[in-house]
Amino acid sequence: MDKSIIISTASTMLVNIALALIALVGAYAVFYIQRAAAKVKAQTKHIEDTAARELLENALDDVLNLATVSVNAMEQTTAQAVRDKVKEGKADREELLELGRKVFREVKAAIAPEAQRVITQNLGSFDDYLTKCIEDAVLKVKRDDPYLTLSGALLDGIDEAKVKENTPGTAAE
Known about the structure:
The chain is an all-alpha fold. The protein has one domain. It is built from 5 helices and no strands.
């Protein structure tokens, strides 16, 4: 009977060891499955972030390009004439400001609602971003052609300076 007790005890011990090994393998399997799931989630989030970033960048580029084109078109067709009228006193500055509001409305109407939503989600306000784009485009137009806002005043000033230089006794003033 000693032999059967030893075999019974050894059998029980082997079953316990086998169960422990199965539990250990199961724990490792769960650990690696969770790790793989976390990796897949991270990759999915990265793909979503990349797609969202690309969508935002495309929307921002579209708004900037459309604002620049609209400002340049307005400058070519209307703005110079209005500035000249304001300078001559035939119109007030409000007409010039209305041109800016008109460009704003045209660009906002041309931009897809989805692009506006993406910009609002990421930057807080589509209208603020569009206003800044328009202001930047106006600044670039003025920088590219700084004489736009002067409309001949510079030439008048140069002519006056030449007259003073050529007039005796005024060159030292």
